[in-house]
Amino acid sequence: MTRAKFAAHIFAPLVVLAVVPSLASAQSTISGVVRDASSAVMPGVTVEAASEALIEGSRTAVTNDNGRYTIVDVRPGLYTMTFTLPGFSTVKQQVTVPANVSVPVDAELKVSALEETVTVAATVATVDIENVAHPAVLSRADMDAIPSARNMQSLGSYVPGVHLNTPDVAGSMQVQQTYITTHGNMPHDSTYLLDGMLINSTIADGRAQNYIDNAIIQETTYQTSSVTAEVSAGGVYTNMVPKDGGNQFRGDVFLGWVNSGFVGNNIDQKLIARGVTGQSAVNKINDFDGSLGGPIKKDKLWFLMTGRKQLTNLQSAGSFFADGSPGIERDSLTTATGRLTWQINPKNKFSAMYSRMWK
What we know:
Layout: H1 3-19, E1 28-36, E2 46-50, E3 58-62, E4 68-74, E5 77-84, E6 90-97, E7 102-104, E8 107-109, E9 117-120, E10 136-138, H2 140-145, H3 152-156, E11 162-164, E12 180-182, E13 191-194, E14 197-198, E15 217-223, E16 237-242, E17 250-259, H4 269-273, E18 281-297, E19 301-320, E20 326-345, E21 348-358
Parallel strand pairs: 1-7, 1-8, 6-9, 13-16
Antiparallel strand pairs: 1-4, 2-3, 2-5, 5-6, 10-15, 11-12, 13-14, 15-16, 17-18, 18-19, 19-20, 20-21
């Protein structure tokens, strides 16, 4: 492949991602009301939301005449909320913001002759009181702790009301997909999004899905009811929130390995006497996954790269090669992903991602 063709191969998907609007992005909203000690609303209070999840570091808003503020398009993560107004004590509190929700964070300011800061230690409830939809959210910690094939289908089977159409034992179906269903819907009724962009394929009426590297996902939301009108199907509504780089260089590595020594055998003498010579079993499962991200320019341009190699060898009962050895189905999947996040100016941010799969 020539350099020009390679550049076009990379650049074209980035342009598409830049111009396609997100119908249901992974962004959330923080809003609330600020009052004084007498419960009167307070206009003109400066509210700052600071987090490592924001490439610009923080976002600010000012309360209106009703004492209400709203900070939109915030990434999932841990935020420090700071409320300031001259003549009043500064209030700080922390809140964890999941994906696709509106989190209420109220505050009370007290008159203070001295400059002081009050840190609120109470945990802020992250219950979305503005939307009827309440999706199940799997954080990065959840996805790392759950024993699964580390893909959106296998992880989704742990959500109440969601199940796989085909069992995935020990990740043996990591290369050959299984599908999630709910409420009796067909597998092709499910909708999959990556950062709000539809990624359902055109294969089998949308049943077959793209392989998204688990290492690039920060959170995944699964919704089985109260799906909005722009969604064309009634199955599981899944949105994967990708990671961004960050102002610090960070890397992760996952290694998974299973061989035939971990597999039991239930072929006894009675079955052997009837001509059974073997069983379907796992011969080998490998999963190697890693990521590296950080700043190209702090607070301005971040990068994230991931790579994953999956191998699955399955022995098929009653299948043999020409030399008489057991038949082995050998599947492999290699995924490479890159993501850039650019803070163009205080009000505009550009994100682009390129992913390539070899199966």
